[in-house]
Amino acid sequence: MGNRSDRGAISQPPDSQFDEPVVLPIQDTIDLHAFSPKDIPSVVEEYIDQCCQAGIYELRIIHGRGIGVQRNIVRSILESHEVVLSFRDAPPEAGGWGATLVALKKVND
């Protein structure tokens, strides 16, 4: 938590200890709840590219149920992405219609 000034307001926390973005290992599942809808297209496209490079061809994209805004954004990207073979709702135990299963083409390097 930030420090309090004399007037009781909370000051900004110190800068992050990381100088550059933290790189996480690519896995077969991504949860989009942490991203704003405007960032979803670039996040999903980068995720698909990184999965292909890592040799991951079956993915689960968790977009949540809600009113379907993020689901529609994700599906529109998948419909036009050149390496997507197919996609469908996840089974109930994997998120149901709150997640999308994706099959990617195996691309040769």
Class derived from helix and strand content: alpha+beta
Return residue spans where pLDDT drops below 50 for at least 5 consecutive residues: 1-14
Cα distance spanning the termini:
46 Å
Question: How helical, in percent, are the residues?
Answer: 10-25%
The biggest sheet amounts to:
4 strands, mixed
What do you see in this structure?
Residues 1-14 have low confidence and may be disordered. It contains 2 helices and 4 strands, in the order βαβαββ. β1, α1 and β2 form a beta-alpha-beta unit. It starts with 28 loop residues before the first strand and ends in a 5-residue tail after the last strand. The chain is α+β, with helices and mostly antiparallel strands and 109 residues long. It has helices spanning 40-54, 69-80; strands at residues 29-31, 58-62, 84-89, 99-104. The protein is globular and about 35 Å long. The chain has a domain at 29-104: Ribosomal Protein S8, Chain: A, domain 1 (2-Layer Sandwich), CATH 3.30.1370. The longest helix has 15 residues, at 40-54. Helices cover 25% and strands 18% of the residues. A 4-stranded mixed beta sheet has the order 1-2-4-3, with helices on one face.
